[in-house]
Amino acid sequence: MSRSKRITRRTALRGLGVTMALPWLEGMSRPESARAEAESKAPRRMAMFFVPNGMHMPDWTPQAEGPLDALPPILEPLEAHRSDLLVLSGLTLNGARALGDGPGDHARCVAAFLTGAHPRKTNGKDIRNGISVDQVAAKTVGQLTRFPSLELGCEPSAQSGNCDSGYSCVYTSNASWRTPTSPMAKETNPRAVFDRLFGRPPAPDIAQGGLQHDRLEKSLLDFVAEDARDLRGKLGTTDRRKLDEYLYAVRQIERRISTGEKVTQSAEIESKFPRPEGVPKEYAQHLSLMLDMAALAFWTDATRILTFMFTNAGSNRSYPEIDVRAGHHTLSHHGNDPAKQADISKINRYHASFLAKFLDRLGSFQEGDTTVLDRSMIVYGSGIGDGNRHNHNDLPILLAGGGDGTIKSGRHVRYEENTPLTDLYLSMLQRMGVATGSFSDSKGELSDLG
Fold first, then answer.
1. pLDDT the model gives residue 204
2. 425, 447 in Cβ contact below 8 A?
3. 138 CB-near residues (< 8 Å, 6+ apart)
4. CA distance to 96, 112, 128, 407, per residue, from 119 (Å)
5. How do residues 266-291 score in pLDDT, each as one tens digit?
6. Cβ neighbours of residue 247 under 8 Å, at least 6 residues apart?
7. How far apart are alpha carbons 445 and 425 in whole angstroms?
8. What are phi and psi of 66, to 5 degrees?
9. What is the pTM assigned to this prediction?
10. Domains of the chain and any CATH numbers
11. Distances 158 to 8, 13, 169, 245 between C-alpha atoms, Å
């Protein structure tokens, strides 16, 4: 089998304002100098996924501690990744508790989810929270990628308004915080994320006429075709196959973006993809596309730090596609009604099915003798335990991925009551190379991860 010529980790496909980062290729793993060796090392990554309104905990929590011999109903869609999962019970988010501030658990559960902080209760301009774990990591590893971090979701971030019992909408719709007063607004449009990742030319200037407009109708791959052909001739058999898979995946996402949103032209040919407006109307299609953007960002090393909100806090979205007609938040106040609890469990399971597809994608991306999933740490969960109780202890927290061999997965671990969730974040920061002995209200590194 032929081997690739030496190429650097920074190699990209370029053409007419477009820059396409490449996935990990074998030709990047044969260093010829100390600097090349540093660049050739496959990166560790961390992602934080927030889902709203807590969980139906009886259907979330495994029956026994130790090996995950069987998954509970909500996590069953993740069966193919059972050996990649750590279910962590007993963790607490003290900053989300009232602490004398009265109601507002949904706002606090997002504001504190990645910061561990107790947000100032206000719906004015005097917001104050903490710095989130993703942004702490980004300060150390962010300079190694084009984007220090990515913040994504399916519902827009707000910058003002009263959303939860006197708490600003800023708290309910932003999980990532660069400073205590500066949230990182998330992107919700898959086309906008795609353009950011690949540097697609900006929107046409009408004064420039048809030439610019024609450029924008082309597939991204049309811009880099010549560079791709040149690179392909330098690659070995395995890397050529990987490059072809990558280009095919990008093309398929382009098609899904273009057909999933409103387009302004009726006639389409394969090599042209009209620029869409807005986002897909169907939640499943929207969520799937956004998660594919997240996977693509990790695969190409566009970023190593990601936050993702399935919806904003307290979301009352209904899910008719799984025959749940009542709103999610309304159902979460189930009052121990078995029918409502069953619907909550269906929503929780539905969300988990999308996480499964994301893990499928990362697990299919090879990096040397391992995968992107094996090198990642992915937190999935909520800042509320049971939605009816609005409790912030014994949270539903899942850790997926191998952390580059530092995490022993395939288990259910239960910690002592009130063990800070931030202990997990401290453990992740240390694995990301952040030199720190504490984070927020952490008491120390979380035990029994590796």
1. 44
2. no
3. 148, 149, 305
4. 8, 7, 6, 31
5. 333 333 333 444 588 899 999 999 99
6. 221, 228
7. 8
8. 95, -150
9. 0.84
10. 1-41+192-278 (no CATH), 44-188+283-291+298-450 (3.40.720.10)
11. 40, 36, 6, 38
